[in-house]
Structure formats: structure tokens, C-alpha cells
Amino acid sequence: xxGGPQALVAARVPGAAGLGLxxxxxARALPATLLADPAWTxxxxxxxxxxxxxxxxxxxxxxxxxxxxxxxxxxxxxxxxTGRPLSAxxxxxxxxxxxxxxxxxxxxxxxxGPDPAGELREALGAAVAAVAGAGGVRERPLWAVAxxxxxxxxxxxxxxxxxxxxxxxxxxxxxxxxxxxxxxPRYTDVxxxxxxxxxxxxxxxxxxxxxxCTACPGRPPAHRQVLLEDAAGLW
Length: 235
Known about the structure:
Number of strands: 5
Order of helices and strands: HHEHHEEHHHHEEH
Radius of gyration: 17 Å
Distance between the termini: 31 Å
Number of helices: 9
Mean pLDDT: 93
Low-confidence stretches: none
Strand order of the largest sheet: 1-2-3
């Protein structure tokens, strides 16, 4: 990555590489506009199916979007958290993948424009439409996945900056500015540690040999609480 606006953001975030703000040297660059390409998205979903030995397009598309949306939103959330807003436009964003396909980093090449919420709404809407077409999925659950990615990326950056309260407080106003159909992000505090209170299910557990996530909304609430308490003990 060159000395563009994201370099200034990354310099302010401890562990920026691990958060996906700095691409690994071995990663291959991809224009983020591909996220809005239904044919390319269908190919990625099919490749995921070969990896997991599954032909459930609905599940595979949701799992793909859960990962891709987090990478896409990393520059935006880090920019907001550090006071240097970055463009959310797909045309301004480059994604990076490792050999074998996983997306691991995203880089925005421009500062946010005069309507950052509009930029984010347009980017998410274009990508959601492509994923919905590739997986035969309704769009509304994919918007819920996006709001969890927004909340999760802000939480991750907030932890890195040791400013969890201040950074996660941005989630609600950002989602409100983007507007429907993006749901309001939610958090829950367990034993003094903040977690995303999921609005979506990534459906990963429906793939062969994959577990249910700790915070999965499909878990019985009491069971989820116990697991979150255990996870809180690791922080």
C-alpha cells in the first residue's frame, strides 16, 4: 500500500495488519467493484462450495458475504474511528486475497466524499444485490449480515485503540445515516467485555464439519450467555 489516505489511518491503529488494513505482501489485488458483479460473485460462491463440499447456494452465499462484508467495511470503520473518514465507494476500494481465495484486506484510495452515508449505502446495496442473485437469497438477511460486520469491525478497531465505548458508539449513528434496510447494530456487555449482539446468522454451521458461532442468534439465550461468559474470560 502506498502513502494514500488509508496509510495515515493504519498508522494510528495498533495491529493494523491483523485487522486487514494493510495487505500481506503475498496478497493479490482485486477491484472492489467485483463485489457488484453477479457472475464473479457466483464464481466465488461456487468455489466456496467446492471447498466445503456443499451445493447449498443459499448457505454458501451467506457465508461468503459474512466474510466479504467485514473486509469491505474495514477501511470505512477504521477511518471513522481515527477521525479520518475514508471513501466507501467500491470504485475507490481495492480488496486483497491470499492464494486460494480468502479476502484478507481492504484499502480505500480516497477520503470520504460529501455524502459518506450515501457512499456506504450504494456500496452495500450493489454488493448485496449480487450476493442475493448468486445464492438465491432474500436481500434483507444480507443487510443484517452487513450490520453485524459494521458492528464487529468497529468493535475490533475500538479494542485495538483501547477506546471500545467511544468507537462502538459510532455504530448506531452510522447505520441510521445509511438507513433502511440496514438494521441498527447492537452490542451486549458480558462480564465487562463487549460483544456484538448478532442480528444475523452467517449459516456457517450448516456446512459440513463447521461449528455454530459462539454468539449465534440461533442458540438458546442461556447457552449463548454461558459461552459469552467463557469468551469474556479470555480477554
